[in-house]
Every structure is written in structure tokens, then in C-alpha cells.
Amino acid sequence: MNLRLHISARADTDLVEIAEYISINNPAAASRSLHSCGDGMKLLARMPTVGPVYEIENARLSGMRKWGVKGFPKYLIFYRFDDHTLFVARVIHGARDLPTLFEGKTR
């Protein structure tokens, strides 16, 4: 299986923010984080069921899955998929208030 990859505008912004934050202390690690995120998304496009379902009470987010970024395991790729496309919704540090972020109450 090799699904088409669709990265949401919010996930794209997440990636920029992550790289900017990491680059404050380590520009090389910031570049590696982006490559690792891209590699993770490519893996998920080939094997979308590898990530566990993210349990959240919001029925609108039913079926959302998560995957830790290799080398940056505290960063999580949140995604869904159908027969043709892997939809990356967000890329977020796991220590953040995830339910609130997914409800759209805060950035």
C-alpha cells in the first residue's frame, strides 16, 4: 500500500514551529527533525495501520491515529487515512494539552 500524502495547513505550520523551536539551541537537530517527520509520514503512507488509534472523546476525531517521530519520540504525528490518502492533521509535542488542541480552543 502506498497512499497519497496530504499534510494539513495546520500540520505544516506545526512543522515550521517545531523546527524554529529546536533550532534555537540546535540548528542541525531542527533539520534532522524535519527529515524524521517526513520519513515518518512516508512510512505511514506505506503502512497506515502501524500507529495506534488515538483515544479521544470527540466523535469528530474518531479513527485518528498517532505515531512517534523517530529520533524525536516526544513529537507525535496525528493522522487518518482512507483507501487512497493519508491525511496528516497535526504534528505536536506529546506534553502539550492534546484534547484542548484538538478541540481548537488554543494553539
Question: Would you write up a description of this structure?
Answer:
By secondary structure, the chain is α+β, with helices and mostly antiparallel strands. It has a single domain, classed as RelE-like (YaeB-like fold), CATH 3.30.2310. Helices cover 38% and strands 26% of the residues. The protein contains three helices and four strands. It has helices at 9-23, 27-46, 98-103, and strands at 4-7, 65-69, 72-81, 85-93. A four-stranded mixed β-sheet has the order 1-4-3-2. A hairpin with a 3-residue loop joins strand 3 and strand 4. Helix 1 runs antiparallel to helix 2 (27-46). 23% of the residues are buried.
Topology, element by element:
Elements: E1 4-7, H1 9-23, H2 27-46, E2 65-69, E3 72-81, E4 85-93, H3 98-103
Helix pairs in contact: 1-2
What can be said about this structure in brief?
Helix content is 38%, strand content 26%. The chain has helices at 9-23, 27-46, 98-103; strands at residues 4-7, 65-69, 72-81, 85-93. The protein has a 4-stranded mixed sheet with strand order 1-4-3-2.
